[in-house]
Every structure is written in structure tokens, then in C-alpha cells.
What does this fold into?
Amino acid sequence: RKEVEQDPGPFNVPEGATVAFNCTYSNSASQSFFWYRQDCRKEPKLLMSVYSSGNEDGRFTAQLNRASQYISLLIRDSKLSDSATYLCVVNNGSARQLTFGSGTQLTVLP
Amino acid sequence: NAGVTQTPKFRILKIGQSMTLQCTQDMNHNYMYWYRQDPGMGLKLIYYSVGAGITDKGEVPNGYNVSRSTTEDFPLRLELAAPSQTSVYFCASSSAYEQYFGPGTRLTVT
It folds into this structure.
């Protein structure tokens, strides 16, 4: 079983749609959780951290379920500029090492 | 403030050649990392460093070496390049859990 698993997609959605990405992780000792965004042929950049209580940043909402070892990202009112690959990322508590999922590709269509 | 810089941006190597990928950060971060990303895959950790003079292996260290003589620099050495090392290499640094990535080096070994 992969340490961090994501649906690779691709997700093709129209502008204005709501889209949700899911991610599961295998290490129950994982302490910190993140969503990174990676544009085509670019480096990953932090989109948002994920907290147990759930957190929101504008159109983006992230949620964590520790019991099910499940992380989600919801994007509302999708924009063309949201087209990217979204990486689910987990910290296993060791030397601040991050484990990356393979990513979910999103294309927002006009 | 340049953040994390990497050189070169692109390189083609012949099998058996060696090279050094350069990485420099100007944020005074203690933690630095080298990842490789194969097409359609997540990032895999090659080596990391928690401070000058301290390095440790990540998930896929074979065929690579690193050094960390200063806080700013974290070069990655490839000895005896093999086609399996064709990939995009990202360097990152962090002070907390957010990692800041360089723009990457695209390496082809033929």
C-alpha cells in the first residue's frame, strides 16, 4: 500500500463547478498534512495546511479525518487558473520529511 | 530575495558520466532536501540535511551523494549516470513544515 494515495484523475470540470479531491495515508503516526499545488513543468508550492478542525481559505476548504486517515480538498467556484496538479502531502514526524502523493490533475474548462 | 535556486535548468548526460546539481537558498533555513519526480509520479526523497555538516539518506539514495558544508548550499552529485536517473530533480528548504522548492533541473541520461 502506498504511504499516500490519491485519485490521479484527470478531473475535467467547467468553470464555476465545485470539485473535491480525496487522499488517504497509511502512517497513523503522521502529524502534519498539507495540500501543495504544482503547475505544469513547475515546482510544487504550498496551497494550504490541513488541520483537524478543518480549515478554509477563500474558495478552498481542507478537511482531515484522523480516524479514517483521510484528507480532502474542496474547491468551490472553479477558475481557469485552478488548473494544476494537486499533491496531498503528509509529514511522518521524522526530520520534517514530507511524503508526497502522486497528485490529482485538475483541468477547469471554459 | 531569490529563495531556492538550482542550476542547471536542463542537462543531457551520457551513460556513465558524472555531474553535480547545484542548490542554494538564501532564507537561512536549516533543513534542505533533494527530490526526484518521474512523469506522473509524486516526489521521492533522495537525501536531506538538518544543518551544515549533517546529511542523511531518504527513500531513493542509490546512485547519488550529497554534502552540506554551508547553510546555503546543498549540492547533489550523480556518479556514473544511468538511464534510470532520467528525471526532474527538485531541491527544497524549510525552517518549519512548509518546504520551499527550487525551479527544478530536468536531467536526461542517454
